[in-house]
Amino acid sequence: MTIGNYLKAIKEGFLGSQGQFRYRQNEIPPEERTVAAIVKDLCAIQDVEWAKYAFSREPLNGKFEDADRVSLTAKAYECGIEAAKDCMQKYGCDTPEKLADVLGLKVEYPDMPQNATRVLFAEFREPNNVYIYMDGVRRGKKLLDDPDVVQAFGGYISITSILLAHEVFHVVEMKNKKNIWSQTHRIELWTLPFFKNRSRIAVLSEIAAMGFTKAITGIDFSPYVMDAFMVYGYSPLAASALYEEMMSFAKKV
């Protein structure tokens, strides 16, 4: 598979259905980097510095200034962290696996999604099904055989726990959609004398899931790092291109 085909296939990865990174074939190909170098640099990006990258997948992205993106990202992370704390206190759970069990979720670990034309790492399907796709997990675990990669992460990570935590948040969010900030916050698009058009900001749900995942798994880095890391298992060149986009959005290059 060429880099272009890989990136076309990665329609929904860790981010879900917000969108995808597109490598344009007429551009200069990116430098292929080691996975350890990619992880090390991306783990150094602070949570709010992911704002532009996260919002680049948001349909309403053009409605926001950079300061708005940063502010909303910070609030979304806090929303996810608070949701994790509430769940851990309410249910007495300190891992996504235990929380999934308490919530009555049916977690399955198939090799790949039925639609094999896309690369998907995990997904939640209402009302209570979570799927962790093991093809991507196995590829990621193979990358963790390199001690330099483990060191870049700050220690060995559980890929399945990180993926599961992200999906569990969407279950928690669904159960609390009337009062959780990631669902209730609205942006005013336009107004008429007797009518206001207000809309949800879809990306806030995904950003909040990142905060939730950090809090319940105890990792020190943003789960957005997993985008490039998991893609690396399929195409080092595609992951390198995605890394460059991430670093550019975070203004690290």
Overall geometry comes to globular
Instruction: Label the structural class.
Output: mainly alpha
The average pLDDT is 87
How many beta-strand segments?
Answer: 5
The proportion of residues in beta strands is 5-15%
Number of domains: 1
Poorly predicted ranges: 1-6, 8-26
End-to-end separation:
28 Å
Q: Output the number of helix runs.
A: 12
Specify the biggest β-sheet.
3 strands, mixed
Radius of gyration (Å): 18 Å
Largest sheet strand order = 1-3-2
Characterization of the model:
By secondary structure, this protein is mostly helical. The protein has one domain. The protein contains twelve helices and five strands. The strands form two sheets. The protein has a three-stranded mixed β-sheet with strand order 1-3-2, covered by helices on one side. Strands 4-5 form a two-stranded antiparallel sheet. Helix 2 runs parallel beside helix 7, helix 2 packs antiparallel against helix 11 and helix 8 packs across helix 10. The longest helix is centred in the first third of the chain and has 26 residues. It is globular. It starts with a helix and ends with a helix.
Short overview:
With 253 residues, this protein is mainly alpha-helical.
